[in-house]
Amino acid sequence: MRKNFSLQYEIGVTPIEHIKIPKTRDELPPVLEALQYIFKTPEVNKKVFEVLNSRINTLNIGRPGLSLWEILVLGVVRLTLDANYDRLEHIANFDKLVRGILGVENDFGYSKIKTYPLQTLKDNVYLIDEETISKINDIVVEQGHYLKKKEEEKLEIKVDSYVVESNVHFPTDINLLWDAARKCIDLAAKLSSLSADSGWRKHKDWSRRIKNSFIRLNRVAFRGGRNKEARKQDATIEYLSLAKKLNTKLENSKQEFKKTGAQSVISGFLLDDLLYYKNMLIKHIDLVRRRILLNEVIGHEEKVFSLFEPYTEWINKGKAGNKIELGLKTSVCSDQFNFIVHYRIMEHEQDAQAAEPIATSLLEKFDLQSISYDKGYWSKENFLVLEEMIPQVIMPKKGKLNKSEYEREHSAGFKKKRNAHSAIESNINGLEHHGLDRCPDKELAHFKNYIVWGILSYNLHKLGNILQENQRKKEERRQKKPAA
Fold first, then answer.
1. What CATH number is given to the structural domain containing 283?
2. Which domain holds residue 208?
3. Is the Cβ–Cβ distance between 214 and 177 less than 8 Å?
């Protein structure tokens, strides 16, 4: 079982509650200030560690490489600085302030100093799941409201969506077919090396030939020149011919691969991956043939935008330059204190479909005075339902306004809230600076975890700013106080 935190400090280690955090313009010190506040405030500390224990120790996940506190701190630091694991390793081992908050920094040169290997960080930081991080985030928001909000004050919520991008390349049927082919070759070669099958000795030659054919077609397809269409058809026929031969070779090795896949867990995983990429190979052979040779328009529902992150969606929000974004839309809800109090990751869902569920989830946790959306969330049904749930609903209508709608949207109260709604753009920009512009993590579950880590680090930053401001005011009052 993992410990919450090692209560027995090493010789020379400064207790976390005594660490002095500098007041700078950098984004990390306020976050560390908020983490220190969580650690040294008993009721908050208890709530956070109860949540962490309910996930990690109850399910007995992973090896005890890090304490629960270290996992939380390093996960937050990673998103605060939008750092990859290599930079996180450097920070964990050489940043004195972060190591102080971790409870391992040694001021007296004692030789037994804890270090954090790269693989240990990768194996441990991801262990906290979306639900657990979300619960911790709720505790942070609760503390922010405790320090900032008046007791009877109701929340004024702003809702907007933006795209958190997946870490994928721009998809075309041509390069997706190459992705499928190269993965099939790599996996077939690995499975072959685990068995007596010698049919894949020339896998490097297969890879070279298909890659060269892919490059030739790519150059013809995206450049000009004489007889472009004829050359494009010839290059496509050659590319598809090699892909079909590869598929035939995979079929011939199918039985041998099945035998190998049954020998161990690792070979079983390799076989499952091979079957997935083989299906993608067949699918994209058909798509390339239909699109280029038959000049057919492929329906959006048939397309795959990444073989490696299949949850990825093609999103066009009508931005300047007709910008296309590849990822998932995420609705975020901020209050008048600029905390992100709720979020919704929208899979195959439009803004208008998310408006009511978002409001329902918010009402389960908070007492709302108002909620504002942009036009993307508008529908007549949404407005009528929300109007019964929340005292003031700011939801501009799409299209032409009738007389009553015009009066509603030009009233002083509506215009004031509508103007205030733009503040959420600043909140979204803050999230993007906390890593939530593009997710480097693989798989949907880790994509969702990454988003909640980013929201948690953003809210800790806001909490830290409040703590530092309160401390500044306290110092000013102390200095103004006349000497006895």
1. 1.20.120
2. 173-302
3. yes
